[in-house]
Amino acid sequence: MKRVKKEFLETSHFSSGASLGGEVSLVQNRHRIYSQGERADTLFYIQKGGVSLTYRAKKRRPAVTAILGVGDLFGELCLAGYPLRMSTAVTLTPSSIRTIKKKNMLRLLRGKNGTSKELVAYLLSSIKRHRDHVVELFTSSAEQRLARILLRLSHLNNRGRFTAEVPLVSQQILAEMVGTTRSRINFFMNRFRRKGFINYDDGLEVRQSLRKVLRGQ
Question: Within this chain, do residues 149 and 103 fall inside the same structural domain, yes or no?
Fold first, then answer.
């Protein structure tokens, strides 16, 4: 990692990342931030780029359990007392990652200020997202699951913008996340583009209209 700067507790909002403290590093595409089974005593915040989390079980193929984008925390299970990493984290694009020590994050969570409240709300929403992902595997079509992943990666599911750029993610990774084949992902992506929901002539642009897929339109 190329070390850029070091910041400690500041008064800026949680959404900027600065109030979390820690060091910010620039990392290249496909950089492994940590591996499953390693000691867990830090968390990470994505300021730019994207990260995939992959879980490997014995005698089974690795499974992508999450694709994260700007503003997401990961590695937070160490706060719940897990001593080892439960997944492997790899950057999907050149990224800017903030590293936060567990003890500093715990101190933030114990504080009585706006940042601590935002952190608690974020961690609770993270638990809900993981639970919802499991439910979606059984209740949604592959096309709807892909649409939801693209919306999450672009953060259009919780922001008032009409379009957003997202990190360039391979169709194979999307297939693993959705639980389908690469050819089906290619089919859905082409259909999304024909309907004007996305554009990838110059990078990947996701539009709010993609939410129509979630409603079955």
Answer: no
Q: Is 156 exposed, middle or buried (0-12, 13-18, 19+ CB in 10 A)?
A: buried
123: closest CA among 10, 18, 23, 20?
20
- Neighbouring C-beta atoms of residue 78, cutoff 10 Å: 20
What would the two tokens of residue 65 be? Answer: 């359990």
The two structure tokens encoding residue 161: 């913008």
Q: What is the DSSP letter of 58?
A: T
For residues 145 and 132, membership in a common domain is answered with no
SS3 205: strand
Phi/psi of residue 129, each to 5°?
Answer: -60, -45
d(CA 17, CA 15): 5
CA distance 142 to 84: 32
Per-residue model confidence as pLDDT tens digits over 1-60: 443 433 333 333 455 566 677 889 999 988 999 999 999 999 999 988 888 888 888 877
Asked if 132 and 174 touch (Cβ cutoff 8 Å), the reply is no
Owning domain of residue 91: 2-136
Provide the whole-model pTM. Answer: 0.69
Could you tell me which residue, 156 or 185, shows the higher pLDDT?
185
Tokens describing residue 213: 């897929």
